[in-house]
Design a protein that fits this description.
This protein is of the alpha+beta class and 548 residues long. It is built from 17 helices and 13 strands. Helix content is 41%, strand content 14%. It has a 6-stranded mixed β-sheet with strand order 1-13-12-9-10-11. A 4-stranded antiparallel β-sheet has the order 2-8-7-3. Strands 4-5-6 form a 3-stranded antiparallel β-sheet, with no helix packed on it. Helix 1 (34-61) packs antiparallel against helix 2 (67-80), helix 1 crosses helix 3 and helix 10 (347-367) crosses helix 13. The protein starts with 14 loop residues before the first strand and ends in a 33-residue tail after the last helix. Residues 496-501, 508-535 and 537-548 have low confidence and may be disordered.
């Protein structure tokens, strides 16, 4: 009996990714006076306590939340702050509750995947090998026994999460659960109790206000004029600290927003909505202000227009981006490029590394005059559970460490400002087929093509609609074009697609070291006709022949 043929996964069509839906910029509040810092701290502490109280009430309402309860909470906050501050606080509370709800759904999905995987492996005989699509049985009786206990623990957690989700119960920590647990490991975090306390209280402050179109400079609560003057509407209990009219406090510093400052100034002068957030960085001891606003999603250009000048295929890896430029016919051009980044350290360091790598990629794309970059539409949400790969801890850490979501969002946002389209392709078999069809042919004596470089070619060709393989094999019975041209080959206008070797002259035969050709190498023969023969002579027209 012949073994049944393995069915390949269906490859989804490529598409041009949408642009960003919002913009966020930041500037530092320099040269603040002690009185300015005192007012900012008091306002942040007061609004933070109100936000904690409002979040508690929202979590208590659960699924029974309605517009009436929302209006009641807003009235209670208005009495101790202001109407606009109350609106910003209630909106921030709803966003935080919704985020916790989405995280709860993701956690529930992860637990269900773990329970399903363990139950499947426990049902198999001990030592049975797995396949590429499903893991096999456990290796020993001891491991099988421990996994039965693990299954009971996961099932208990799964029942608790399902009950919470059904009742609308979420678990939220204002300030972050990671920072909260750091309190029990101050020695490991190299912090004192006072340092941790300062970070914890600062993380629970809130000093943010949503914008409103039609109002003066787009925001009545935190107002920044076009020349950079910052003023804050103080809550009613702190109104005695005001140094300007109408209960406002004006800071002794000005901001300029170097990045996208002109775009921000246009919105402010037109009185369009701009949201602001003031926060304090404890480690650096600096105050910052963030300005953000929503923008209409950029219309995607047609696929044919984006691919008119070729494409750059990018393969995403745990420590670098492998890229290769392809011409409109799908042929690799030039040398492969690699943009490395280091994902160790803090979140700010990782984000900076990703942004630096993407900046170099976009700058290279602009120098190549390419209008499209093809990336894989990766998502390892179903592969990060530790139950799927068993003891392959390094592989699980490798997958979990790849910033697929952050990289895709960053690249889409940064490419939108440069006019470069991002094409998302299905990642199915790109590494395997790229290594099979492109790794060896693209190798050179002075260049070693890696598996990731070959995968970038496969990604680019899939975005262009070409097959990944280099060309269709000719008929076996006849190694020629008797049965028609091959279905996948270079275009007629592709330069150098069928060039001949440089002809060998008598001078080259005397000194083969000068030309680099070895003796005995076959070269294209010189033309036999006088009309096509090349000559080293320089033809000069004799002026006497032109006289009568």
């Amino acid at each position: 009996m012949t073994e049944p043929k393995k069915q390949l996964r269906q490859v989804a069509p490529s598409f041009v990714a949408f642009g960003p839906a919002g913009v966020s910029i930041r500037d530092r509040l320099k040269n603040l006076t002690p009185e300015d810092e005192k007012v900012l701290r008091l306002v942040g502490e007061h609004l933070g306590s109100l936000a904690s109280r409002d979040l508690k009430a929202r979590c208590h309402d659960g699924l029974e939340h309605s517009t009436e309860t929302w209006a009641s909470r807003k009235r209670d906050l208005t009495a101790v702050s202001s109407s606009r501050w109350a609106g910003s606080l209630t909106k921030a509370t709803h966003d935080q509750w919704a985020l916790a709800r989405r995280g709860q759904a993701a956690h529930l999905k992860s637990l269900e995947a773990g329970v399903r995987t363990i139950a499947h492996r426990l049902s198999l005989p001990i030592g049975e090998k797995g396949t590429k699509r499903a893991p096999g049985g456990y290796r020993s009786k001891s491991e099988w026994f421990h996994k039965t206990r693990r299954l009971q623990v996961l099932e208990g957690r799964l029942d608790a999460v399902r009950t919470d989700r059904k009742n609308g119960v979420v678990h939220v920590v204002r300030g972050g659960r990671k920072l909260l647990n750091t309190r029990h490991n101050l020695a490991t975090a190299q912090l004192t109790e006072s340092q941790w306390r300062e970070r914890w209280e600062t993380a629970r402050w809130i000093l943010a206000a949503d914008g409103e179109s039609g109002k003066r400079y787009g925001n009545e609560t935190i107002r920044i004029t076009p020349d950079g003057e910052v003023s804050i509407k103080l809550p009613s209990p702190l109104a005695d600290l005001a140094n300007a009219k109408h209960g406002r406090y004006t800071l002794a510093t000005k901001v300029s927003f170097p990045h996208r400052g002109l775009e921000w100034a246009d919105r402010v002068e037109a009185n369009r909505a701009v949201a602001y957030r003031v926060h304090f960085d404890v480690e650096r001891g600096r105050w910052y202000v963030d300005a953000s606003w929503s923008c209409p999603v950029t219309r995607t250009i047609p696929m044919e227009t984006a691919l008119a000048h070729g494409v750059i295929g990018v393969d995403t890896n745990a420590d670098h981006l492998a890229a290769w430029r392809l011409d409109p016919d799908g042929n690799p051009v030039g040398q492969p490029r690699r943009f490395s980044y280091d994902l160790s350290g803090s979140a700010d360091h990782r984000d900076a590394q990703v942004r630096h790598a993407l900046s170099r990629l976009l700058n290279w794309a602009k120098t190549c005059a390419v209008k499209a970059i093809a990336v894989e539409d990766l998502d390892f949400a179903d592969s990060r559970t530790r139950e799927k790969y068993g003891r392959k801890r390094c592989f699980r850490q490798l997958i979990s460490g790849m910033p697929t979501g952050k990289l895709r969002a960053r690249l889409t946002s940064m490419a939108d400002a440069t006019g470069i389209a991002i094409i998302a392709v299905d990642p199915a078999y790109t590494s395997m087929w790229g290594a099979q069809h492109w790794k060896k042919p693209m190798a050179a004596p002075r260049r070693k093509t890696s598996r990731h470089d070959a995968a970038s070619i496969a990604i680019g060709r899939r975005a262009q609609g070409h097959p990944i393989r280099r060309r269709t094999a000719p008929p076996r019975a006849h190694q020629s074009d008797v049965h028609g041209h091959r279905t996948a080959q270079a275009g007629r206008r592709a330069l150098g697609r069928e060039e001949t070797r440089r002809p060998v002259t008598d001078r080259d035969q005397e000194s083969p070291a000068r030309t680099g050709y070895k003796q005995g190498t076959r070269a294209t023969s010189a033309p036999k006709t006088v009309r096509d023969a090349r000559s080293d002579r320089q033809w000069i027209q004799n002026s006497l022949l032109l006289t009568g």
